[in-house]
Amino acid sequence: MLASWVPVPADSHFPLNNLPYGVFSTAASPLPRPCVAIGDSVLDLAAVQRAGLLSGPVLSAAGDCFQQPTLNAFMALGRPAWAEARATLLHLLSAGEGTLRDDTVLRSRVLLPASEVRMHLPAAIGDYTDFYASREHATNIGIMFRGRENALQPNWLHLPVGYHGRASSIVLSGTDVRRPRGQVVRGTAQPQVPAFEPSAALDFELEMGCFIGPGNELGCPIPVERAAEHIFGYVLVNDWSARDIQRWEYVPLGPFTSKNFATSISPWIVTPDALEPFACAAPAQEDPQPLPYLRQQPGERTNYDIQLEVSIEPTGSSGSGSGCGPNGGSGGAGESSSSGQATVVTRSNLKTMYWTLPQMIAHHTAGGCNLRPGDLLASGTLSCEGPLGAGCLQEATWGGSRPVQLEDGTERTFLLDGDTVIMSGACQGDGYRVGFGECRGTLLPAAEL
Amino acid sequence: MLASWVPVPADSHFPLNNLPYGVFSTAASPLPRPCVAIGDSVLDLAAVQRAGLLSGPVLSAAGDCFQQPTLNAFMALGRPAWAEARATLLHLLSAGEGTLRDDTVLRSRVLLPASEVRMHLPAAIGDYTDFYASREHATNIGIMFRGRENALQPNWLHLPVGYHGRASSIVLSGTDVRRPRGQVVRGTAQPQVPAFEPSAALDFELEMGCFIGPGNELGCPIPVERAAEHIFGYVLVNDWSARDIQRWEYVPLGPFTSKNFATSISPWIVTPDALEPFACAAPAQEDPQPLPYLRQQPGERTNYDIQLEVSIEPTGSSGSGSGCGPNGGSGGAGESSSSGQATVVTRSNLKTMYWTLPQMIAHHTAGGCNLRPGDLLASGTLSCEGPLGAGCLQEATWGGSRPVQLEDGTERTFLLDGDTVIMSGACQGDGYRVGFGECRGTLLPAAEL
Predict the structure, then answer these.
(1) Which of A113, A338, B332, B358 is the 20 to 30 A CA-CA neighbour of B139?
(2) Domains of chain A as residue ranges with CATH
(3) Where are the beta strands (DSSP E) in A90-160?
């Protein structure tokens, strides 16, 4: 663990080794601007830059990349700027370095207690793409729908299956999520007749998200061996899903209203530099080998060993009903705080993901599609082996047939109104952790009509 | 036809009745800003606003909505602002009105020959959604894949099937489009083994696009009877599609790289006010009736009678190969001009579309998904009855089995490198037309690897 003069609690996700990026504001200074987390503090990068302390050659030439309400401008600069910023911040915050530590006026202006800041979406997300990259997850879902012999679709081992998600409804951790209404078919009568009802199969999906740094020009694919240069960093993603709506709508064009009501992300973007010590070999791809545009050399074929966890925390009260209409308030932007007892329902890991992020990027752009700084790619549900390895309730309860038990004595097939879903993720180092913090959201009842 | 002091050629798509919105720049004044088209001229709305001539109460209160590089700010204002702007412009440009006409200095500053301007994307498009709303199209595709008895999927008559498209690769009419490479399976051997090749089944899709004005709050659906208030206007859309890539990749999450390499739109946004005289009854929905959240009263259930046409114009030369890589130039942003003979391959119409735009908006937001100003919704391929009624080559050639004949003596199953696809659309009034101009794009060969 790298030593800092900023206090870092022993169990913190944010030692000096990490330095994840976010965007924050305070009551006194409500303009959102970039920051990094260190222990229980945040360092205001706009203020640090104004103080002349981010003045290496690359960032100096790049201008006011931190005087912005999002990280998009910094993301666009690419690895030389990111490396310089990290080196500068590691130095400024390291134990023994007095520039900031001993300037009490400046220090009080740039270093703020995390408890006093409000976090914002870290980027203006132009496009959001969701993949389906976990073999364990795709296999489980496949067995449920088609049986063990035909679990994986014919294309699954040849390409990272993905689809375009909805960027407008990506919300920050802590934002309440409303249960959607949608078309669902109950029972097995033929012909199928749908009803318009609140989803009765509301699920979480544990995913890893990847923010794109520099993009590519339209028409110019990113080769798989260059794809890592385009990765700015990673967040936790909860891709809330309404399974009953999904089942009826998804043929032939894929999920739509079953997914686009909300996607939650964690506020802190953990960088490849911080995760590098936790790189590990990704699963081999030998049967079949992928096509050359997706093929990675064994040494380059890495994931990270990130321990992922999902808890459900029920509340007695499930909040108010409405929110919309002429007299209603906010429909989805509130923040509930749950007060129940949390039960861990998932323990997974990024390390077994079959298709790596560089492969997803290479495939996404193979036909010429352009990525832009701030675009978000997500992995799809991350499941792994083990008793709690399922990354969503659809798998954990085997389609709703085997409820999971919560510690308060209740059970769940799918989520109930008032449930708070809490995702967390961290890499375990020698005496320290590099983590993501939490991605949480409370499910509100469907809006009144 | 409303008379204007600005000359309007007899066959113009842009008489005073139309006043479509766009964004333009000139060589002398390269900052993009909003405009309207009138005859063969464009009226610079930024300059008109600066001259104090867009000073009704709503626009005055709204500030500098035209001093912007996109129309998003104006779109967000909603119908009162749009109505005021239209009334003001109709007055300023009407035959007997001298304010602009007689002020030669001001007139020369605000009214420019269309031939001297460069058009830009009219909006920053946050999210792009594509539907599948034409019954004729869905039926034809269904017959090809599943036979006449099961042509429509079980959900098709119950909801407007749609999916999220890619916003980053939406390009303006006139932008060249590169043929994508992708995974395709040739032949019928089992198990299927894909190759990575340039698509051999590159198709156009004739669609109508709808730009969203005011959005909705996350969690708060837009009722179908209020949905029209959220429509700013319409453009032509060519949703280029690689059928061979699509066939292999689309199960189970829908089209991805087969669509995301490019979508072309026409530069002029035609407003509901301009189209109102051409409103006509949409097809009845009685078997089955849609669910109440999608049900429209018969009088409200309208489309527009817009005659749509697609031509293919071949060229002898098919352009250069590459474009990417260290020494390459632009991959997809160039502009080719074809010089061949155009053949009309499609004559369709918006009027028979089964799911109306208000229904698409109501369904899109039914689960709480938020729309934002500048979002683009497209109809999906618009086919209708008749010998040239197919809105894409997949249908016109029945999956490539019945080539279409071009006037230069060649034939097409799918598009060849160098082909220019030209879409146009217009409503026929009594002695005038309200039209969209053209949406064109030339297909370049796949980039070299």
Answers:
(1) B358
(2) 21-120 (2.30.30.230), 128-444 (3.90.850.10)
(3) 111-113, 118-120, 128-131
